[in-house]
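Following up on my earlier thread - several people asked me to post the actual chain instead of describing it. Fair enough. Here it is, all 1209 residues.
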Amino acid sequence: MDHGTCNQSDISLLKRRETKHLLKVAVLLNDQIQGCIVRPRQSIAADERIKPLPYSYETKEEERKTKTKTKTKSKEDEAAEEEEERESTMKRFVYINDDELSQDLYCDNRISNRKYTLLNFLPKNLWEQFSRFMNQYFLLIACLQLWSLITPVNPASTWGPLIFIFAVSASKEAWDDYNRYLSDKKANEKEVWVVRQGIKKHIQAQDIHVGNIVWLRENDEVPCDLVLIGTSDLQGLCYVETAALDGETDLKTRVIPPACMGIDFELLHKIKARYSYGVIECPNPDKDIRRFDANMRLFPPFIDNDLCPLTIKNTILQSCYLRNTEWACGVALLNHQFTIFSLFSGNETKLGMSRGIPEPKLTAVDAMIDKLTGAIFVFQIVVVIVLGIAGNVWKDTEARKQWYVLYPKEGPWYELLVIPLRFELLCSIMIPISIKVSLDLVKSLYAKFIDWDYEMIDQETGTPSNATNTAISEDLGQVEYILTDKTGTLTENRMIFRRCCISGIFFGNESGDALKDVELIDAVSSGSPDVIRFLTVMAICNTVIPIKSKSGAISYKAQSQDEDALVQAAARLHMVFVNKNANILEINFNASIIQYEVLDTLEFTSDRKRMSVVVKDCQNGKILLLSKGADEAILPYACSGQQTRTFSEAVEQYSQLGLRTLCLAWRELKEDEYREWSLLFKEANSTLIDREWRLAEVCQTLEHDLEILGVAAIEDHLQDGVPEAIETLRKAGINFWMLTGDKQNTAIQIALSCNFISPEPKGQLLLINGKTEDEVSRSLERVLLTMRITTSEPKDVAFVVDGWALEIALKHYRKAFTELAILSRTAICCRVTPSQKAQLVELLKSCDYRTLAIGDGGNDVRMIQQADIGVGISGREGLQAARAADYSIGRFRFLKRLILVHGRYSYNRTAFLSQYSFYKSLLICFIQIFFSFISGVSGTSLFNSVSLMAYNVFYTSIPVLISVLDKDLSETTVMQHPQILFYCQAGRLLNPSTFAGWFGRSLFHAIVVFVISINAYAYEKSEMEEVSMVALSGCIWLQAFVVALETNSFTVLQHLAIWGNLAAFYIINLLVSALPSSGMYTIMFRLCRQPYYWITVILIVVAGMGPVLALKYFRYTYRPSKINILQQAERLGGPILSLGNIESQSRSIEKDISPLSITQPKNRNPVFEPLLSDSPNSTRRSFGSGTTFDFFQSQSRLSSIYSRNCKDN
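Reply from S.P.:
Thanks for posting it. Predicted structure:
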C-alpha cells in the first residue's frame, strides 16, 4: 500500500524536523500559556517564559548529558533510562490545530489501496506472474522455441496460449486495481468540514492534515482517526457505528476526555492556525483497533497545563459513522455537529494499517496437483534424456547414411544438445499450460454457488451465505476437525436471567425463573439489604448506556449480552438504571432516585476475567468497589472469614443446568486507601508502554477482601438445528472440538444437549485438570492410558480440559497432548483464551489434519484465521468473525450443507478437472513421442502449430469447464448418507493411484490413435498434414466421449458444450482449410468427403472407449463402491438403500495394532474401495455400530504416521 505522501526513506528526515519543530512549538506554547491570550512571540519578555515542557527534546538532552557525567549508575537508573529511551522511540507528538508542523512531519490523509500505477503495471504484473515456477517453465520453453534450429513447431503454438493466459490474469488484476482506484478516489474527494485560521471551511478528505480540527454532522462517515474534544451532548457522549471497522452491529459510545469537559464551542473558532492549543503524546501508528494508549495536554485559555490520559473510548476511527448524537445545549450546537481533531490520517489510520492481503491458503488438492506436476516434470526430463540420446545415436549411425538428410560431417559444439532440446520443446505440453486458469475459473464459480444458495439464507435475519475466499472450496469436502466456539455459535447469544443465589439463598430453582420467584419479589419489597446490594451491582457494574425515548420508555445500549441481561433483570426487580449524566448514575428504586458517581472503571479483560467500578454514593459519601466476573476471578478474593462454599455449590449447580454464571461482590473503600490507589491508577493509565499490563497490576491491588454477594445464572438457548447438524457431521467422520470460555460443567451440558458427546453409558468423559505440572502430568497420563485400552465401539470417549491445565499441557507435555488429540474424536476445552484457541488449531494442523474453525465474535478471529478453513457466523456479536473468515453463514446448521453439498461437489469436480487436464496434455504428447520413432527420433512434430495452439486453448478446455454443473449424487442423497464424505476426506478421487489410472488411459488412447491413424493414412497413402488431422480428430472424439462417460448428470449446457465443441472443431478447421496460406489448404474438405476418414474415426472411438466402458461396467456390476450403489438406486427410481444394509466383505485385522491407536474389534465391515492408506483418519476413526465405513492400516503404517504427526513443535 502507498502510505499517502510519506515515504519510508524520509523517516530520518522527519525525525530531524520533528526535533526542530518540537523546540519551536515549546516556545510558542509557553508564550500562549503565559499570556492566556494569543499574542506575538516577540512581545513576551524572555524572563516571562515558563520552563520547557517535560516532554520536550531539549529537556531530555539536558538530562541525558547530566547522567553521562555520573560515574556510577544504579540498576534502577539504568532501567529507567532504558524505559525512557524505548518510550521516546515508540511515540509521536500531534500538535492540535498547527498546520505548519503537522504538514512537514506527517503523512496527509490521501488513501491509496492500489497495487499498481500506469507506469509500473506491466513490469510489476509480469514479475508477479513469472515468480511462479510453472510460468517460468513455460517462458523458458517459449524462449527456446525462438531458436529456429531446435524448434519443431512454430513458436506461436506456445507463445499464443502463454500470452492469452497472461493477458487473462493481467486483465483481472487491472480490473480489480481500477475498482480499488475508483473507491479510493471517492473516499479522497469526499467533502469534510475543518477549522483553519479560525474559520470553518469545506475541504476534501485527502487534504486533512494531522492536528486539524474536523467537524462531523450526524450520519457522517469519519474520514480519519479522531480524538474527541467536544460533542453536542452535555455528558460529552456520542454514538458511533463501527460495523465497517470491526463488524459489530451495536452502536458504541465514545466520550470526550475529562480535560475537554466544558470547552466553549465559540472558543474553538477563535484559535488561529499559527498556535497550537494542545499536544497529544501517542504511540506510533499501529493496527490494533481495540487499543489506544496516549496522553493529552491542553493549555490556556482552555485549561491548566495538566496531563490527561486517552484510551480507545476517546477516539473515533476511520470508516465509522456518527449516529444518534443529539445536542443538549443551544448556541454552538445548532447544526447537529460535534468537534474533533485528526490524529492519524491516510494509511496510517488503524483501519488503513489493518488492511492487507491475507496469506494465501494452499488446499490439499492444490498440494497434490503440485506433487503430480513435479512427478510429470521428472518423467518429462527422463523421456527427453532417453530420446535425446537415442536421437543422437541414430543420427550418427543411420541418418548420415541417408542421402536426403544432408547432415554435415562436422557440426557446431552444441550439436549434441539440439535433439534433446527439440524433445524438451516437444514434450513441454505434458504439463498443461491452462490448468491454473481453468482451476481459478471453476473455483470462482464454486464460490458463487455458495453465494447463490437460497437454502443457506437465514430466514429470520435475511442473512445469506458468503464465500470471501474463492480458492479453497474443495477443502470443505476434506474437513476432518471442526473447532467451534459455543456462545453465539452453537447458542443464540440471547441471554436471559434465570436463577440466582444471594447470601446462600437460592431463587428460581422451583419455577425456573428467578424473576417470578415470590420469595425474591418479597425480599425486594421488604428492602432486604443483601438483595438490594446484589441488585445494585447488577444495575451499575457495567458499561451500559440507558436511552430514554420520547414516550419515556428506557432502552439500553450494551456491548455485552450478559450485561444487558443483568440490567434488564434488575429493572424488572424495581432497580431501574434510568440515566447516566457524565459520571453520575441514577437508579430508580421503588420510585426513589439514588445517585452514584463513577470514580474509576476497571475494565474487563480476558486475563482478569472480571470487571469492577469504583463509585461514590452521593447520599452518604461512601466509596464502594463493585465487581462481577467468573467464579475463579471473584471467589478466591473473598474477605477472610466469609464462607464461599455455598456460592461454589451454586456455581456448580447452575453449570450442570447449562447456565452461564457470574459472581457479584463489593467492598467499601476508605477514602485514604482510594486516594492512594487512585494516584497509582492514574499513573498506570497515562503510561504509553505496557499500559494494559500495568493497569491489571494496579487493579489487582484493589480487588481483594471482597464481600461475595451472590451468583447470577443466565440462560443461552441452543440454535435451531444444531444437534441434528452435529450428529450428521459426526456420521461423516468429522471430529468436533468445543473451545469456550465458559465453565466446565456449563460446556459439558451444552455439549450433551447438542449431540456433541453421548451421555452415559454410551459416552465417557475423561477429565484433565490440575494447577501444577505434576497434577496435569498425572491426569494426562491417566486419560491417555484409558484412551489406549478403551474400544471405540461401545463408548464415545471424549476428554475435557480447562484453560489452566491446557496451558501447562501445551507448554510442557505437547507430545503427549498431541497423541491424545489423535486418539480422541471429541474434546471440550473450557476457560480458554483466544490465543489458546489458535494454538489448538495449530496443533491439529501440525498433525496434517484439515481443520475448520467456526465462531461468531472478535475473540474467535485468531482461531478462524489460523485454521485451514475459517467460517464466521453473522451473529449478535457482530460481523468481525464473518469478515475475517473464508466463509460466512447465518446459522450453525448451514455448516452441514456447506460441507456435505458444496464441499463435496467442489472436491469431486476439481479432482476430475485437474486429472483430465493432465490426461489431454499427455495424450497429445505421447502421440508426438510415438511419431518420433518413425521419424528418425529427430524431434519432428506431427501436428502443426495452429492445431497445437487451438487444442490447448479451445478444443479441450470448454467441455470440461461445464463439469462444474456435474453432480454424482443428488443433494438429498448426499444429506441422507453423510458417510460418503469419507471418500473426499481420504483423497479417494485425487491421489497417485487415480492419477496413474488417467496416465494409463492417456497412454492407451495415444497408442490407439497413433496406430490406427498411421496404418490408415501414413506412408504413401496421404500427406503428413492429413495424418496429423486424422490423429487430431481421433483425440477430439475420444475426449468428447471421455467427458461424456465421466459426467454423472447431464444438462442442456453440458450436451451443448460436449457435442457443440465437437461440431465447432470441424467448423473451425473447415474455415482454416479454406485459406491458401494456412498450411492446411483443402485438407479438411478432402478428409470429410472420404468415408475412409469416418470409418477411421469410428474405429478409434470403438477401440479407445471399448475397454474403458467394459472396465467401468465390470466395476459397477461386480465391485461397486457405496457411491455406485447409491447412483444405481437413484437411476432406478427406487428407495435408496441405507448404507448400513449394503453388503460388504468382512475383513479380519491383526490383533496387535499400534499401541497408539484405539483397539478395534476383530471383524468389521470395510468399504470395498478402502480410502487410501495415507488418510490420517485411518489411525483413530470410529463411527458407531451402524457405520459400514471403516479403514484399517498395518501396524508399521500407523507407527510411521504417528511418529510423523507427533513431532515436537
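The longest strand covers residues 491-502. That should answer part of your original question.
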